[in-house]
Design a protein that fits this description.
Low-confidence stretches: 10-14
Largest sheet: 6 strands, mixed
Strand order of the largest sheet: 7-6-8-5-9-11
Structural class: alpha/beta
Bound molecules: pyroglutamic acid
CATH architecture of the largest domain: 3-Layer(aba) Sandwich
CATH topology of the largest domain: D-Maltodextrin-Binding Protein, domain 2
Distance between the termini: 76 Å
């Protein structure tokens, strides 16, 4: 009798429970905890944890500590983790459209990068959906510039330089400028520069600052070639199981994170370039003659990208140009 009563009590209790048990979501991030993308993701995680009343608790794992950058997207797709952040352009080998935010000299300011991202978003969402991924938000990196361990004023100076790349676009830039590309995660670059495995890279002031590259490199040249983005994605099956109320909370947190992340990126741009200079680096615009040469290389890269990205890529660039 007693047993039956407690069984009934258990059933009643479980009926009264919310439809889903509280969940913990681990969120891998490739970049250092102090970087604004990671801080922004931590704010997003708190927003979701608080907003869902603890139904979904998100814990961020920065610096590649749970999965390295190269493995994060696959980990989300396959459900090893429910959510994570990744530089999507590093997956252009899967679909060239993922590198829409690396087209040389197309969108070179924060405003233009936002316009381009808004135009590309439905296409990116469609491609990601086919990969079991749902895009929540994306945040730009500051404009990309060139780092060297010597003064560089022309492509000739770049011949044979060992170049750290972060995706196929940057590797192609190296090839076309006579440099030798080697792919290295941001988390590993301090060591790569210290040991001479790499002597140069294209990146933001932010990444050079985060990795204290002034310990090995001497020059940062502003080129403003493009503003690549980090994207926060959730596994689509996990997403489908989230209640409508919690989906609304997460989407609201994602929109807030996109806006706050953009503001942080803008603020971090000058702050980190000042930091590079304070570290002893020469920081300033690239020589106009070098920029002209790089634009020539950029035209080749753009033509190649349009070729591989096909109709989806052409449509994004045309819509962007029509809107500008
Ligand atoms: N930092 C990232 C990508 C672009 C950037 O500014 C990196 O260098 O890995």
């Amino acid at each position: 009798m007693k047993r039956t009563t407690s069984m009934i009590a258990l059933c009643v209790a479980s009926l009264a429970m919310p439809a889903m048990a509280a969940e913990s979501w681990d969120m891998p991030l490739a970049y250092s905890a102090s970087n604004y993308h990671s801080e922004n993701a931590a704010d997003f995680a708190k927003c979701v944890t608080d907003g869902t009343g603890g139904d979904i608790t998100i814990t961020t794992h920065p610096g590649g500590s749970l999965f390295g950058g190269a493995d994060i997207k696959r980990a989300i797709q396959t459900g090893q983790v429910p959510i994570g952040e990744r530089l999507l352009s590093a997956h252009a080998n899967e679909n060239a459209v993922f590198a829409y935010d690396n087209i040389p000299f197309l969108a070179t300011s924060f405003d233009d990068a936002e316009k381009l991202a808004d135009i590309a978003r439905p296409t990116i969402e469609k491609i990601l959906a086919e990969q079991n991924l749902t895009l929540l938000y994306s945040v730009p990196w500051p404009p990309q510039g060139l780092y060297f361990n010597k003064e560089v004023t022309s492509l000739d100076d770049m011949e044979g330089v060992k170049f750290r790349s972060y995706n196929t676009t940057t590797a192609r830039l190296a090839e076309l400028t006579g440099m030798l590309p080697v792919t290295i995660e941001a988390a590993e670059i301090s060591q790569a520069f210290a040991t001479g495995v790499a002597e140069s890279m294209i990146s933001s002031g932010a990444t050079g600052y985060d990795r204290k590259v002034w310990e090995s490199l001497s020059h940062f040249y502003e080129v403003n070639s493009w503003l690549p983005r980090n994207s926060v994605m959730v596994n689509s099956e996990t997403w489908a199981d989230v209640s409508d109320a919690n989906k609304a909370v997460i989407t609201g947190c994602a929109d807030a994170a996109a806006a706050a992340g953009l503001e942080k990126a803008i603020a971090y741009t000058q702050f980190t370039m000042d930091g590079l200079a304070a570290g002893g680096m020469s920081v300033g615009p690239a020589d106009p003659a070098l920029v002209d040469q790089l634009k020539g290389v950029g035209e080749t890269m753009t033509a190649e990208w349009l070729e591989t990205a096909g109709d989806d890529g052409v449509a994004i660039v045309e819509a962007y140009k029509a809107a500008n």
